[in-house]
UniProtKB/TrEMBL annotation, chain A:
Positions of NAD(+) binding: G257, S258, G259, Y260, I261, G262, L263, E264, E280, G353
Disulfide feature: C116-C121
Protein name: dihydrolipoyl dehydrogenase
Catalytic activity: N(6)-[(R)-dihydrolipoyl]-L-lysyl-[protein] + NAD(+) = N(6)-[(R)-lipoyl]-L-lysyl-[protein] + NADH + H(+)
Domain called FAD/NAD(P)-binding: residue spans: 79-414
Species assigned in the record: Vitis vinifera (Grape)
Automatic annotation (TrEMBL), chain B:
One cellular component (GO) term of this entry: chloroplast stroma
Family: Belongs to the 2-oxoacid dehydrogenase family.
Domain Lipoyl-binding intervals: 53-131
Protein's organism: Vitis vinifera
Named cofactor requirement(s): (R)-lipoate
Protein name from the UniProt record: Dihydrolipoamide acetyltransferase component of pyruvate dehydrogenase complex
Length: 588, 488
């Protein structure tokens, strides 16, 4: 028996109000697709949720058994799809386009992999992997609690830097090979849109080659944003691009911006022995995080570490170290603009966010005007021109459109666009896209924060409830001696819709997907709370979180509550039967 | 929550969005109710609290909670609190919870400090309504709380409070560290934290870091505590420095290792124990000090004779040598000094002789404190105790890291001379070889056989020069060669 693929699809539709409509159907038993491997199509249970939010949408992507090869374009165009920018977004779109059988090309003016792979998520994870271990080894109390004795931990800066660099090269070559393997044409040079369905690519200044494509996706990404007044010399005043190379570990570094980039670097630098000063323009550190999670994170990630901070201030001028002087940072009040202070530090990292990279794209050729540099798009990622009209056959995904500046969001948008082009109406639900900050411990989130949810509730007139679970009671957490953590669920008590989940704690970034998948699939709390989690695992934190939510108690869903234990029993017994059936098939 | 101690109770999410509450839709609110109570004076009969000083109580965070542990105080003494602000984090069995104040006021005193435990309802802090009441509250705190930390000087608290109300708590810390005075104070984040923790006025600390900034070490020095980093075992090597450690010398302070040659097949790799790692670290650190060595022959016939006499009384050779060294050091204080920063002499007020002892798998230096002042018998007694403690690994830090001069003796193995490495933080170390019968000629040309011992001192040439060391050795030799004074 070589391989068995088990596809579980849904057949049972039930609304939150009428769960008694649950039905079990065993649709088909076995239908061999490859001679030796029977594929079992087994229909399980799924609750068809009420579609309440306008943007709730389900993926219907079924992975194909055999990866298709790059298709051939029609005679009219050179390609079915041309993607400008081979970052994670472009890569995701290209792979999905090939799956559709389209002839696809990807234009890259720099290196394959884009920001994420070369100057972002990927190398930073390598540094954070090191910082996590350094933290563990340096925490004598923690080690003692395990009964471990560890000699003073030290590190070799170059070794750490090499690890980050090697990881980036490895992922870059994986990405390149996967594109080449599928037959995607990688065209080198800067891509410029000449007109509808027409792109030029080539070295800057050269005449370049012109190609035509039925559809074009802009996926040019972003670059580090450097505010004016800041002089980046790449040595003592740096952006994440240079910081990831870890060319030196300063004794004292100021990090301008306390978003997730700044936070992650503070984790790296403090683990390697630096002291850190945050400069944040807003009144609180970690803007953008759920306030409660932010508060706990401050207590764990900032207060006990060698970190101090200035909030409500702008760094109006940053001068690199020179002529025997340290790096000078002039701080002004964010509101009154009055000078507040001057910092003298050994280095400054500018982590004030990212700016879209759309220069040289030739947007003027198709009458598109950027908004603060971002390419305006509609909910289908289709580009909108200066007159507010949709530009046919032109899409923009990822950081360049600014909807959600995350690598996996770009990729999801790319796949959504390919679906849309292939004729399937597809709107990506951005509220189902998780985000994570890889500090130690990690922070992750999906959906709305509590204030956002309450604001929405006020407008739309529904009730919001919050459930929370600490990590302290989880067995695995206690075994790991990592008790600090909180999972928070924001939901509608009337119908059990998950509005947001926020996690701070060990492996939070890996835990969030149960929640994000639930949001993406429209699963309600009253259903997911019956899902079984292996014991003892960290995922039981979410299990407990869902179970602690009180759905229907304040609303009018009494009957549902009564019927659900029976349903639960029904489901489990039926499933057991199905499993037995399956097992008997396997064994024969 | 019918406890008479709790005058007001806040229940879960009813008041603020940031309260800790597990499942805010719980109607009975039994478990995760959060409360803090400052009793009104009217409702509290027992207390003799003056008009506007309120007690902050250990809240009951669950129906079963009997006592709570303070994780940390978010606010410090002297901070101005406004209603609804989080003040303290209390640990329950499931999570740490923020507890907020119900009243505006000034946190006058913390009665139960970070990490301490208090029963539910016990006062954990005092809240004053006005500045004038702070002193009163403090007095009360010092009376009531036995575990209360010593209150900081009142002016510090008072000066910090008036400006603070509108400022967020972390900022008040930052701005307190950077006063508007004419002198610009630059202190690193950790230095500021330490200053706050040890209640050191950062304005009075002299910065020795780059660009004159105040480093954590400066604050620690000002607070009179030993640097936290080097609390490891203070060890010296009395082993001959045979392999030239030149490549290590070139390494940057933080660099861990240059690539080592591949191990010979069949070899085993054994990681350092904590003590061995401390030795290794100290040895590498010692390379930053420019040292030199001066040797000196000492005749020991008379010392040996004295030793035979006092041996029955429990006197050891180590005690004799330590006493002799201490007496010589008393006359040459510079050899007992140390150079901490490359700019100054640090003259030590006492003469503490550290003596290197090999113990199973390691090396430690028990310290004979005030060796010049104690008599030989007391010193021997003390030494015996120290060695026993060292073997049992029960030496307290001050018993092994307070040395001002080190003695290392390998004479018992028949070693005639060797060269010691200077331990960090000290000015000199003496390596003592075996005393051996040697043919000597006196000034008249007569041969005789005398016991001769070679001593070799390694010293920090930044503060101790050749002539200093030579003079010291001459004194030492005189004392050893005429040892009567040792028994005085």
């Amino acid at each position: 028996m070589s391989s068995l693929s088990l596809r579980i699809s849904s057949s049972v539709a039930a609304t939150a109000r009428s769960e008694s409509d649950h039905r079990l159907r065993l649709l088909s038993s076995s239908s061999p697709t490859v001679a030796t491997s029977p594929a079992l199509h087994f229909c399980g249970l799924r609750t068809e949720a009420l579609k309440l939010g306008a943007n709730s949408n389900r993926w219907k992507v079924v992975s194909a058994a055999v990866a298709p090869q790059n298709g051939s374009a029609s005679d009219e165009f050179d390609y079915n799809l041309v993607i400008i920018g081979a970052g994670v977004g472009g890569h995701g779109a290209a792979l999905h386009a090939v799956e559709k059988g389209w002839k696809t090309a990807i234009i890259e003016g720099d290196v394959v992999g884009g920001t994420c792979v070369n100057r972002g998520c990927v190398p930073s994870k390598a540094l954070l992997a090191v910082s996590g271990r350094m933290r563990d080894l340096q925490d004598e109390h923690h080690m003692k609690a395990f009964g471990l004795q560890v000699a003073a931990a030290g590190y070799d800066r170059q070794g750490v830097a090499d690890h980050a660099n090697n990881l980036a090269s490895k992922i870059r070559s994986n990405l390149t090979n996967s594109l080449k393997g599928l037959g995607v044409d990688i065209l080198e040079g800067v891509g410029t849109i000449l007109g509808p369905q027409k792109v030029k690519y080539g070295k800057v200044g050269s005449s370049g080659n012109v190609i035509t494509a039925k559809d074009i996706i802009i996926a040019t990404g972003s670059v580090s944003f450097v505010p004016k007044g800041v002089e980046v010399d790449g040595k003592t005043v740096i952006t994440s691009d240079q910081a990831l190379k870890l060319e030196f570990v300063p004794d004292w570094i100021a990090i301008v911006g306390s978003g997730y980039i700044g936070l992650e670097f503070s984790d790296v630098y403090t683990a390697l022995g630096s002291e850190v000063t945050f400069v944040e323009a807003l009144d609180q550190l970690m803007p953008g995080f759920d306030p409660e999670i932010g508060k706990l994170a401050r207590r764990v990630l900032i207060n006990p570490r060698k970190i101090d901070y200035y909030t409500g201030v702008f760094a109006s001028k940053i001068t690199p170290a020179k002529d025997g002087k340290p790096v000078m940072i002039d701080l002004i009040d964010a509101k009154t603009k009055e000078p507040k202070d001057t910092l003298e530090v050994d280095a400054a990292l500018i982590a004030t966010g990212r700016a879209p990279f759309t220069k040289g794209l030739g947007l003027e050729n198709i009458r598109v005007e950027t908004q603060c540099g971002f390419v305006p798009v509609d909910e289908h990622m289709q580009v909108i021109d200066a007159d507010g009209k949709l530009v046919p056959h032109l899409y923009c995904i990822g950081d360049a459109n600014g909807k959600m500046m995350l690598a996996h969001a770009a990729s999801a948008q790319g796949i959504s666009v390919v679906e849309q082009i292939s004729g399937k109406d597809n709107v990506l639900n951005h509220l189902s896209i998780p985000a994570a900050c890889f500090t130690h411990p990690e922070i992750s989130m999906v959906g709305l924060t509590e204030p956002q949810a309450r604001e929405k509730a006020e407008k739309e007139g529904f009730e919001v409830s919050v459930a929370k679970t600490g990590f302290k009671a989880n067995t695995k957490v206690l075994a790991e001696n990592e008790g600090e953590g909180l999972a928070k669920l924001i939901y509608r008590p009337d119908n059990g819709e998950i509005l947001g989940v926020h996690i701070f704690g060990l492996h939070a970034a890996d835990l969030i997907h149960e929640a994000s998948n639930a949001i993406a699939l429209g699963t309600r709390i009253q259903d997911i709370k019956f899902a079984v989690h292996a014991h003892p695992t960290l995922s039981e934190v979410l299990d407990e979180l869902f179970k602690s939510a009180k759905v229907g108690r304040t609303g009018s869903l009494g009957p549902e509550m009564k019927s659900s234990p029976i349903l639960h029993w029904l489901k489990s017994t039926s499933l057991v039967q199905v499993w037995h059936l399956l097992l008997s098939k396997f064994s024969t | 929550m019918a406890s008479p101690l709790l005058s007001r109770v806040s229940i879960s999410n009813a008041t603020a969005g940031n309260t800790i509450s597990f499942s805010s839709s719980v109607s009975n609110g039994l478990l995760w109710r959060r409360s803090i109570a400052f009793p009104d004076k009217s409702s509290r009969k027992v207390s003799t609290v003056q008009a506007k000083i309120r007690e902050i109580f250990m809240p009951a965070l669950s129906s079963t909670m009997t006592e709570g542990k303070i994780v940390s105080w978010i606010k410090s003494e002297g901070d101005v609190l406004s209603k609804g602000e989080s003040v303290v984090v209390v640990e329950s069995d499931k999570a740490d919870m923020d507890v907020e104040t119900f009243y505006d006021g000034i946190l006058a005193a913390i009665v139960v400090g970070d990490g301490e435990v208090a029963p539910v309802g016990a006062p954990i802090g005092l809240l004053a309504e006005t500045e004038e009441e702070i002193a009163e509250a403090k007095a009360k705190a010092s009376k009531s709380g036995s575990s209360a930390p010593p209150p900081p000087p009142a002016p510090a608290a008072a000066s910090a409070s008036p400006a603070a109300p509108a400022v967020a708590p972390p900022k008040s810390a930052a701005s307190a560290a950077v006063p508007d005075g004419p002198k610009k104070i630059v202190a690193t984040p950790f230095a500021k934290k330490l200053a706050k923790q040890h209640k050191v006025d950062i304005g009075s600390v002299v910065g020795t870091g780059p660009f004159g900034r105040i480093t954590p070490a400066d604050v620690e020095a000002a607070a009179g505590i030993s640097p936290s980093k080097s609390t490891g075992v203070n060890v010296v090597s009395s082993v001959a420095a045979a392999p030239a450690p030149a490549p290590v010398a070139a390494a940057a302070p933080k660099a861990a290792a240059s690539p080592a040659p591949p191990p010979i097949p069949g070899s085993t790799v054994v990681p350092f124990t904590t003590m061995q790692a401390a030795v290794s670290k100290n040895m590498v650190e010692s390379l930053s000090v420019p040292t030199f060595r001066v040797g000196y022959p000492v005749l020991t016939d008379k010392l040996d004779a004295l030793y035979e006499k006092v041996k029955p009384k429990g006197v050891t050779m180590t005690a004799l040598l330590a006493k002799a060294a201490a007496m010589a050091l008393a006359q040459h204080p510079v050899v007992n000094a140390s150079c901490k920063d490359g700019k100054t002499f640090t003259y030590n007020s006492s003469i503490n002789i550290a003596v290197a002892v090999a113990i199973n798998g390691g090396l430690i230096t028990p310290v004979l404190q005030d060796a010049d002042k104690l008599d030989l018998y007391l010193l021997s007694q003390k030494w015996k105790e120290l060695v026993e403690k060292a073997r049992a690994k029960q030496l307290q830090p001050h018993e092994y890291n307070s040395g001002t001069f080190t003695l290392s003796n390998l004479g018992m193995f028949g070693v005639d001379r060797f060269d010691a490495i200077l331990p960090p933080g000290q000015g000199a170390i003496m390596a003592v070889g075996a005393s051996k019968p040697t043919v000597v000629t006196d000034k008249d040309g007569f041969f005789s056989v005398k016991s001769k011992m070679l001593v070799n001192v390694t010293a920090d040439h930044r503060i101790i020069y050749g002539a200093d060391l030579a003079a010291f050795l001459q004194t030492f030799a005189k004392i050893v060669e005429n040892p009567e004074s040792l028994t005085l």
